[in-house]
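Quick one, tokens below:
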């Protein structure tokens, strides 16, 4: 732990999250970019987008300047739905690699690019397709539900995909005579088991960011802000979820915060979400739930994408997502099943 991390207070951490005069939100990007450069680059990206007939889709955890030039900002479910219905010829996916793969599965004939091809995910790497296949072969009665945070190969091996926004609905729709295997997030899986009462075998994977929150850190911030509700993502551990007033996906967080009478709300999810919440609910104060170590609420993979890399990938139409046709066609079945169940009343 750094000296600053050991000595900084919750108040100081929140101060870092404020917009610096003349610059952009440094809590999410760290490296100073003069406002004029930021504005010029944003204008160039928007012009390039028109020229390419492109759509920019950005996850809620992206840096603020990327969120600001995107056509759509949302969670994995919203992004998959947008990718499924876009008429754009080029999809620029600002998120991590598995998300861009999902867009490619839904749009095999379109160009899908992403700012940084190395933007991975700890959940994705925790579940190699070969290991999953081995387990499935030993358990032929498994109905495999894969959280969308997994590779295209894993999507191709499972029966249905889910996101944190629709996981309860997807599990409730699973055939009753099957044993459910839930991959790769054990925390989301255990939360869904609590919600549905349906027993499941859980893969032992987790999001390295969301497991950073601890019950003691949440108890401390509650003391600092009495009356502020705690909203946590289901990828958090059970100990943290038990202390939360609301556990939900990032998209549902927006609705919860908008409808809550509270003026200050404590948020336990990746730091990029705060930018979206501040835009959606400008009259409210959002307090990033502290971890035991400073800055652990930033996903290093999500933060690999920058405005400069976004411009470069659009200019070069690289790096592109390419997948074998057989993987696309098999994974498409699981994704379409999710979209169909999700659309049910
Ligand atoms: S926040 Fe966690 S789940 Fe999301 S991309 Fe980063 S490592 Fe993966």
């Amino acid at each position: 732990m750094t000296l600053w991390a050991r000595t900084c207070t919750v108040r100081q951490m929140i101060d870092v999250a404020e917009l610096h005069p003349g610059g952009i939100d440094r809590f999410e990007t760290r490296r100073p970019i003069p406002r004029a450069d930021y504005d010029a680059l944003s204008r160039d990206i928007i012009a390039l987008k028109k020229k390419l007939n492109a759509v920019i889709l950005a996850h809620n955890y992206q840096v603020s300047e990327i969120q600001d030039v995107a056509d759509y900002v949302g969670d994995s479910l919203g992004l998959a739905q947008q990718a499924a219905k876009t008429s754009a010829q080029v999809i620029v996916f600002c998120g991590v690699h598995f998300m861009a793969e999902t867009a490619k599965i839904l749009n095999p004939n379109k160009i899908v690019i992403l700012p940084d091809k190395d933007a991975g995910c700890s959940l994705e790497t925790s579940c190699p397709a070969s290991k999953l296949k081995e387990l499935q072969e030993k358990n032929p009665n498994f109905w495999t539900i894969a959280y969308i945070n997994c590779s295209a190969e894993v999507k191709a091996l499972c029966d249905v995909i889910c996101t944190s926004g629709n996981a309860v609905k997807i599990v409730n729709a699973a055939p009753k005579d099957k044993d459910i295997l839930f991959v790769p997030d054990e925390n989301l899986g255990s939360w869904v088991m609590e919600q549905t009462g349906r027993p499941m075998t859980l893969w032992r994977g987790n999001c390295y960011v969301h497991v950073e929150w601890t019950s003691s850190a949440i108890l401390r911030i509650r003391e600092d802000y009495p009356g502020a509700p705690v909203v946590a993502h289901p990828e958090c551990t059970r100990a943290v979820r038990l202390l939360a007033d609301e556990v939900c996906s990032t998209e549902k967080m927006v609705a919860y915060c908008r409808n809550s009478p509270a003026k200050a709300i404590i948020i336990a999810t990746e730091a990029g979400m705060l930018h979206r919440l501040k835009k959606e609910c400008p009259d409210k104060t959002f307090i990033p739930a502290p971890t035991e170590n400073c800055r652990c609420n930033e996903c290093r993979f999500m933060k690999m994408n920058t405005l400069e890399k976004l411009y470069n990938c659009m200019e070069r139409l690289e790096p592109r997502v390419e997948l074998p046709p057989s993987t696309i066609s098999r994974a498409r079945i699981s994704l379409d099943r999710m979209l169909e169940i999700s659309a049910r009343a």
